[in-house]
Amino acid sequence: MKEYGYSYKQDSSNEILGYIKASSLREAQQKLTIIKHLDIDSIDRVFKITEITSDEKQSRRYQR
Predict the structure, then answer these.
(1) pLDDT tens, 8-52?
(2) Any idea what DSSP says for residue 13?
(3) Burial class (CB within 10 angstroms; exposed 0-12, middle 13-18, buried 19+) of 44
(4) Which 3 state secondary structure label does DSSP give 62?
(5) With 28 labelled, which of 12, 41, 45, 52 sits at a CA distance of 20 to 30 A?
(6) How confident is the model at residue 57 (pLDDT cuts 50, 70, 90)?
(7) How far apart are CA 27 and CA 11, in angstroms?
(8) pTM of this prediction?
(9) If residue 57 lies in a helix (H) or strand (E), which one and from where to where?
């Protein structure tokens, strides 16, 4: 299972709004449709979904 973060595409700071655990990017998109109550096309237009790497996970731990 991988971890994905999502942010608004229009946000130049790329601030992560939340995290999703999924086995693929497609599954992460589908889970986000449920969370945000939007269809897949709207999700693609509004949100940027990126896989969180192990380095980023480590960095987040130290920021807490």
Answers:
(1) 999 999 999 999 999 999 999 999 999 999 999 999 999 999 999
(2) T
(3) middle
(4) helix
(5) 12
(6) low
(7) 23
(8) 0.82
(9) helix 54-63
